[in-house]
Description:
Layout: H1 2-8, E1 34-46, E2 48-50, E3 56-58, H2 77-87, E4 99-117, E5 122-141, E6 153-155, H3 164-190, H4 199-202, H5 204-225, E7 237-239, H6 244-261, H7 282-293, E8 301-306, E9 310-319, H8 325-329, E10 334-345, E11 368-379, E12 383-394, E13 397-402, E14 417-423, E15 427-437, E16 442-453, E17 457-459, E18 461-465, E19 471-475, E20 485-497, H9 499-503, E21 511-524, E22 527-528, E23 531-542
Antiparallel strand pairs: 1-4, 1-23, 2-3, 2-22, 4-5, 5-8, 5-9, 6-7, 9-10, 10-11, 11-12, 12-15, 13-14, 14-17, 15-16, 16-20, 18-19, 20-21, 21-23
Helix pairs in contact: 2-5, 2-6, 3-5, 3-6
Amino acid sequence: xxxxxxxxxxxxxxxxxxxxxxxxxxxxxxxxxxxxxxxxxxxxxxxxxxxxxxxxxxxxxxxxxxxxxxxxxxxxxxxxxxxxxxxxxxxxxxxxxxxxxxxxxxxxxxxxxxxxxxxxxxxxxxxxxxxxxxxxxxxxxxxxxxxxxxxxxxxxxxxxxxxxxxxxxxxxxxxxxxxxxxxxxxxxxxxxxxxxxxxxxxxxxxxxxxxxxxxxxxxxxxxxxxxxxxxxxxxxxxxxxxxxxxxxxxxxxxxxxxxxxxxxxxxxxxxxxxxxxxxxxxxxxxxxxxxxxxxxxxxxxxxxxxxxxxxxxxxxxxxxxxxxxxxxxxxxxxxxxxxxxxxxxxxxxxxxxxxxxxxxxxxxxxxxxxxxxxxxxxxxxxxxxxxxxxxxxxxxxxxxxxxxxxxxxxxxxxxxxxxxxxxxxxxxxxxxxxxxxxxxxxxxxxxxxxxxxxxxxxxxxxxxxxxxxxxxxxxxxxxxxxxxxxxxxxxxxxxxxxxxxxxxxxxxxxxxxxxxxxxxxxxxxxxxxxxxxxxxxxxxxxxxxxxxxxxxxxxx
Length: 556
């Protein structure tokens, strides 16, 4: 391609046909019977998004945490409540440790388009996109080089093969010690009578409070740490051996033991519940998240499917170029062309799956209607530019989502999955493409795009039960928080065309080949900072009417 462009750049430029169009949309309307077949492939990648207000954030930010705990994982909230009670630390939180995620999205978008001129002022269009999306994901929990915010809970030894019997036996001894001491003191309390010298009877209120505390503490130890019994298998996670939780719980065991010694002579020292010797590993964490949330395994995701098909039309409203390609090729001074169009974007794409937190859909999968207009300005034979405006109205539909209780939390349990009403925000786009035509074969283009989209609206209120059986209300409106978007892109490209040579009989095939690149330079509302490279090829032929070659018909 580079060699071809270098050769055509030195060819004399005194020909008389259609010159190079250039990259980007314009106000061109094909002549009656002319068909333009377009095939293009674009490659996009991004690993950052623009947050509300404009600052950049890693795409993986919402999948990462300095402290993965009850704020993100609903299943850890009962454990947090239990440990706060056991350790008497009402404000303490639980943490599985830091979670670090790398996430890069790669999108390959192929598109086949067909444009056909019906009259000198009306053209119909159809576009069929196909996307292959790859989510490159690496998840690490408690990485070796991460020293901040260490985990304070870890896998329960009562569930670890090789340690189950030892751990549950020791936990059971703790529970039995608490209950046995409680029964002894309670029996003596029930035997208290007037004139009794038993120390228990001297302060019955204090003794009964100690019995109640010990029983509740024993129940918490059994259900949290596990004793092996069917009714007390324990939680999947317990405090780390070196954590404040574990130290406080051991301190309570010792304090209750010391309190009972005031009533029971020769009471020995009790065992302590078995804490977690090590934090959860990356493999254990990804398995736990997949199983507990009922989601796809955390890792690489690939998706291939058709995108949102577009069907539209364009009408030429004004053309000061004159008829035929030679008019523009030789024009001196200023010229203008104006066209208006409309299209329907069908919801034929696949939306990201609710059970795969790293999945990327192949489109919005929602029907849109767009009105657009384009104006071409020509300044002599070398320079011309296009300005395009678009307004899109997106229709309401019904889709399945998991509704979080915290905006943008991706770790959502299966029971929160509901069919909600979705209305994506309407959008406005303004695009400008200045072009410089070097000769009849080659042109260079620049491109600027501004896009603004309104906030997405999700509606639906649902009443259901959480895993503990408690009633809970889900409000779908939280899905739209922060989704109002703005974005600016810049780019450029080069175009190679044989249309002029075909008009003069020096080429057998009327084609255009375009190379372009664009990238986001600012944005908000979690719009991705994209880098896109695209190659496009157009081939012209005629369905009806006179031959395509000039003399009898024009190529456009």
